[in-house]
Amino acid sequence: MKRLILLAGSLLAMFQVAAQELPKSFFVSAGIGGSIQQNDQGGSTKSFQISPSVNYLLNERWSLGLFLEHNRQTTETKMTSLPGSGGYYGGSRTYEIKNRSWTAGPQVRYYQPIVSKLFIFGETQAGFRAESVEIKESSTIYYYGGLNGPVIGSEKLNAESEATSVQVNVSPGLVYFIKPRFGIELKANMLNYNHGLKNSMTPDEDTESKNFNAELSLSKAKFGASFYF
């Protein structure tokens, strides 16, 4: 809701400024995004993303460039079970999943002016993605009964995997020029296609995964800035 209010206020101010043309030059941009979400088990999911790029404006509408994107996500979950009426067993289990990825490749943008200093753009990125996943699990089991008190057993498991894929993203966005060579951006992924190349957890004879997602949500939007040389 806060993002919607901020976006509405920004758009209202943008519609009141003087005429401005898109600069014709090289430009660099950097976007950043992140979120913290609580889950039903009392844990949380924390994510962070940063995506710099270098681009060249072919004309007033089209640009071509190279991008690099880094994502980090950590999910923590804790489950506890108390002794039931049928016995004296109880326990707890904790999960921690760390996901890290790097994506790099070419990107192309198309700009469409709306009003003074304000442009809407469509962006397509196609890149090679390298991803790693680390899973840590810790469990403890309690048994209450007998003359010797509770018996406690515990176990810890760790697992790691790596994967590579080709990824294509299509994203709409807005750019507003505060100054002739400096703009602020708001961008949200809308379409995503991921074609798996290799996964260390997948047997060689199995088919690699192919995923297509379509979603447009401000909760996944990234704020950024662009500087034009």
UniProtKB/TrEMBL annotation:
Keywords on record: Signal
Annotated Outer membrane protein beta-barrel domain residues: 7-217
Pfam family, any one: OMP_b-brl
Leader peptide range in chain numbering: 1-19
Name of the protein in its database record: Porin family protein
